[in-house]
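no rush on this but wanted to send it before i forget. what follows is a protein written twice so to speak, once as letters and once as structure tokens for the fold. mainly i need to know what kind of three dimensional shape the backbone takes. thanks a lot i owe you, the record is right below.
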Amino acid sequence: MDVTALTSCEMERKTDIGNEFIKLLKADKNIPASMKVKMLNKIIYSGQASVNKFILSNFPEQIDQAKEFELNCSKIAAIIYPTNQGSTVEISNKELSMFNIDSLF
């Protein structure tokens, strides 16, 4: 799931959370991780038991976002990092104590 696209979709559909996003952006404020996690919670726990695995893109990008996600939504099982050689590396290390997730690499 592309979290940036989901955020835009919520704003276009004028959902409750989408309207909150719009208010923040009109006030020149960033959308906090807690609000993105609130949106993701609705999607991830939509009641469809067969849909229980997700790959997120464009979120989390910073450690505070990762901590918010793990605290209020779900544990991060792995980070998949694409390389310029076309292969991917699955990282199952859950040590998220670094400032930026990219610094794990």
Remarks:
- Residues 23 and 29 are 9 Å apart (CA to CA).
- The beta strands are 79-82, 88-91.
